[in-house]
Specification:
The chain has six helices and eleven strands. The protein is of the alpha/beta class. Strand 4, helix 5 and strand 5 form a beta-alpha-beta unit.
Amino acid sequence: MTQDLDYQLYGAYGDRYDLHTPPHHYVDDHAFVIERARACAERGRLLDLGCGTGVLLEKALAAGLDPLGLDTAPKLLALARARVGAHRIRLAPMQSLDAEAAFDSVVSLSWSLNYCRDLDELRDVLGRAHRALRPGGCLVVQVAHAPHAPAEAPAFNVDREAGPGGPEDIVIRYRFWAGGPQVMLAEYAFECVSSGERFQEVHTLRAADARRVAACARELGFEDVELLESWRGEPFERSLSPFMLARRSR
């Protein structure tokens, strides 16, 4: 998911990721992305930037697509390889993407793009994605939008999932708030009750302004750039996590 292995959520505790975020999470987001990708090319090649544990890749494969995933987190990718095979996984940062007209769709979910250092780096990644797409290929990304986040840290949201010790053995607490212009802060607290394992950390998400990201996409030559509130497809108004859709010209 991330380009920064200093974060324990993806690094030291990466092999626990599917415990607190199991495959049934984000099922609607995944279905939306796969529908868009198949509409672009029914059996096309899909590239997932920040593929994490490969849940989307597995669903894309089952839908008849030809997926490939990039990520920098070895423990996450070990789980992805078990899902879709090593030949569909690359241990590499999205900043190193160097492909020409190789994919029918490029996707990135869960704010993976916002682990770029700044808007210039994110712009570079979008440029690489544009070059990697075949003419008419589609881009589907999910970005953080700090202007819609609260100014101060709110109360934690809490998810409880089954783990080795029982049905609510895994607890993940999370909250999001604005950390400055184009910055959103995301705090995560993980606990496995049965083992006593726990950690807490704050992630800094940069270039967290969906409208600026959309402007970058247009400047890079993407067409039909559109921001959506969610997988439901409504216009972007209040979401912290809108989708941006775009297309490389034919």
